[in-house]
Amino acid sequence: MTKNCNFIDKLREAGLRPTKQRVKICEILFNREKTFHFTINDLAKKISEDLNEKISLATVYNTVHAIQKKGYLKEIAINSDKSYFDTNTTAHHHFYDEDTHELIDCDQSNIDSINVKNNITGKKINSVEVLIKVASDNQNHN
Amino acid sequence: MTKNCNFIDKLREAGLRPTKQRVKICEILFNREKTFHFTINDLAKKISEDLNEKISLATVYNTVHAIQKKGYLKEIAINSDKSYFDTNTTAHHHFYDEDTHELIDCDQSNIDSINVKNNITGKKINSVEVLIKVASDNQNHN
DNA sequence: TTATACATTATAATTATTCTAAACTATTGA
DNA sequence: TCAATAGTTTAGAATAATTATAATGTATAA
User: Fold this and answer.
1) A86, A138, B5, B97: most buried, per Cβ within 10 A?
2) CA distances from A54 to A7, A51, A60, A118, B61 (A)
């Protein structure tokens, strides 16, 4: 889902009815220069800051999952306690800052292409992603 | 924590009192040939199968976290809905079978060493891990 | 426009995990 | 050996993230 576009049409193309809640959420997610890494809670907070009318938490969940299923959002696993989503759906890796709990994109070009020599037999590879955990030099981390 | 050893001494060395619950959990986790990938729930189920007396769920959490803090278990992020732990604490990668939700070790030698060309300034890299998501060839996965 | 299928909502339910406070046990040292 | 104490276990309550429910509302097709 590209930025600065008509989300009513984009949603319809994706087979999702363009309700005002969905349009608003798309504007928040995709009308931006940089990739947005967020938890549902981050997004819900942003909605209530930006918006006069409120969107129910259930709708935020429903909408994010609907958009994700259509392939316009990617879920990323870092911790086990929260779901992170990423508006950048292209193949790319991540830095995870253990000090700030922030997720930062790591471009494909920053890491040479990864070759899995032996795959599990009978299975196909859906994705290969690298997570680089970083922390401040002067702190202790496990 | 090596296998086929006296866990009473091992626990004591790690600064953990060797209670019978901890010893039993160590036996289940470390008296095995192959790496064990598990969620707390998997482990709790295994305990209640193997054991006459039961161990409280809180104790399973406490013990796993205590052992993990001492560096004998590694936590792995895949989904956001559950915590997976790994008895293999050496640097290595993983396959994640999206059909069975199973985690499989991927040896370092199966992937050429990964060079992060540009790191975040002022941060040091704590770990670089690859997660390869696989699924049956004849099924749809996003 | 109206029927219908899909969405939204508040709230309840669920699940994984952590907290609490009382009962218990390993260890220390007299 | 035996109490003191510091650390541990436990059941059950509390919390947090997420999902289900069922009633109300809305977009769309006929």
Assistant:
1) A86
2) 19, 7, 10, 50, 38
